[in-house]
Structures are given as C-alpha cells and as structure tokens.
Amino acid sequence: MSNVRIGRLGDEHFQESMKLAQFAFQYTRTEQQLEEIRVRIEEEPSERWGVFVDGQLAAQAAVLELSTYIGGKVFAMGGVAAVSTWPEHRRQGYVAKMLVHLLERMRERGQTVSFLSPFAFAFYRKYGWETYTEHKTYTIQTRQLPVRKPYKGRFERLYDYNSLQALYETYASKFNGTLRRSELWWKHRIPMRKPGQIAVYRDSQGEAQGYLIYEVKEQQLTVHEFVYLTSEAYEAIWSFIGQHDSMIEKVTMTVPMNDRLTDMIADPRIKQEIVPYFMARIVDVEAFLGAYPFLASGSADRVCLDITDEHAPWNNGCFELLIGESGQAEAKRLTGERPVEETVKMGIGTLTSMLLSYRNASDLSFLNRIGGDMEAINRLQNRIPERMTYLPDFF
C-alpha cells in the first residue's frame, strides 16, 4: 500500500513543483522567469501544500493570503491557486483530501472566505465553492466607439503602478469580491498581467478621478484596467480611448456586469460576451456572519440557518443568526432539535452566493437552492446589502 501524506512545500520542492505546474497548465518558463517566480513566492505571504505518494509529489495547491471587499468591509480571504495533479495520480481522491486540509488551515488562520479560479465549475461545486462573479468582454470596432467629447480635466501619463493604489482601492471598495491589493501585489502581479501605458485623468481641480492601463499592438487597443470614480472621468477616459482611432481597428476590454457603455453609444449592438469567472466559498460560517455588514433596520431580526456543508463539519448544522438594528450580527451553532419556524435551509455555496449578492433569494428559490420559512427568507434578504460582484484580477 502506498504511503500518502500532505505536507508543506518549501524551497527544496520548488523545481519539482514548477515541473508539475508547467505540465498541468501547459506553459513553459525560462530560467530567468522561474527565478522571478521563486522570488515572488518568497515575498508574497502564502502557504503551499503538496500530496506526497511514497515520497514523490503527486498533487499540489497554494493558499494566498489575500483580502477582499464585501459590503465595503475588508475580509481576510484565502486565494486557492495552482491546484494540479500528475495524471497517474488523478481520480485517487488526493485533491479532495487536500482541499479539506486547506479549508481547515484557512479557518485556523482566520480566512473566513475563499476564492478560486476553477478549471471546472462542477468539480469545485462539489466541495462547496460556488460561482460568485462574472464579467462582460467587449470587442468594439473603432467606428462604434463613443463620440469624443471635450473634458474639463487633463490626462497625465505615468510610469509607476504604485501611484494608482489609492484610486483603485476607492473604486474596488464599491464592489463585492474585489481584491484589496497589497504593495507586493502591485509590485509582482499587476506589471506582469497588465503591461503597457498608464494614463491618469485629473479633473479641473487637479484631483485624480480615474485611470486607464492599456496597450496598443497590431492595430488593437487592449484595455487592462479601466477605473473611474465619477461619470466625468468615465466619459473622459472613453474620449481618450477614441483619440487612438487613427492607430487602431478595434478595442477589447473586460468590464463589470453593470457597465454603462451601451447606454452612451449610438449603436449598442457591439460584440459582448458574458464570462463566468471566479468561485467563492465561506470557510467559517460563524466568524463570517459575525463580521458581515448587514444593513441597518428599524428592528432586530432572528433567523435560523440550516446549512449543509459536507467538507467543513464546523459549518454543517443549524445556526441562530441575530442581526441587530445597526446591522451588527452574531451567529451561534444550535445543539439539539432544530427549530421549524424561522428556519432557512441551503448549502454552503448558496449561502456564499447570497451574501456576496451574486444571487438573491428570488433567484435561489427559483433554482430550488433555498428553502424553509418564506417570511424568514425575505427578512434575511432585506438585510443583505446589494452590490455588484467584480474581480479585475487573477491568481
């Protein structure tokens, strides 16, 4: 019988880990690029784990120590990444064991929610993760761009990504599921994934109100990041993009689902594609609910949440959720008989989807993913702040 164990991956496992990653994700890296990855791993806070079979690395995954905005509040988040297995070790249950181990570690480290980019949504759904965000991709021919308008401010071309951090954080905090980016994230991740030009829009008072990260190549303008704090900045940035019309044939970009471009162009029949993106999972129900920014109300609310979570037993059961008038909440696991009245039943993925405001109670009821007392379901929904989900990053 094989000897199977889960252990931490250290620097001594780097080459072995990179061989598996390059094979699984079908890419190759030069020695210089591998050294850059090694430095990033050393600097970025994370835990990397492997499944070893008879001493050989069979599967691996990483949990990045990240933070995310939910309801305008910052939550510690475990970003699961680089999940990979050698083919000869697949379908042995190794990844399942590792995911459960990662959940236990995230709970111990106070990461109450987790995000990941799935290779297959159905696979991770079995382990409690659920789709939490999608985005739109635009492909816009030059003739379809918004009509250029004069703007009161000016654009300033910059060469330092770090100067964008304050603008980004103000913008990101308005969504659910965006990252609160660290200095290391700006140092390593943004230049790697979003190369090109940086243009900041300043209003007539000289205040920065938005920015664009983009590159022009082979007559195509690719927008890597479009951030704006005001409608003035939004229109000005589009006018700035339009100034490139003699150089390009089309513009491509990714935007939140509530982007308003089609409301400001003469012909809204541009090419749009909706892309399901990342998945999320509540790691610790009690801790997450206790920190969640419920809406204030004229009265307190009590709801009993009957949660099913097969892979995190500390979440599996009935919880009494008390939401005060100010929105402060407390959740306690109930022992003994579960109450019949005021009980809402759902799986951990559905609870995540609902609290991140990706799907509301009406949607989930239609999909038969939520059940129980309808009055309690409605009261719970009325205390959830509605915000668009969005993630302009990848890991």
UniProtKB/TrEMBL annotation:
Keywords in UniProt for this one?
A: Transferase
The record's GO molecular-function terms, alphabetically, read: aminoglycoside N-acetyltransferase activity
Protein name stated in the entry: GNAT family N-acetyltransferase
For this protein, the record's Pfam families field holds: Acetyltransf_17, Acetyltransf_9, SCP2_2
Q: Name the Gene Ontology biological process terms.
A: aminoglycoside antibiotic catabolic process
User: Taking every annotated instance into account, which residue ranges of this chain make up the domain N-acetyltransferase?
Assistant: 4-152
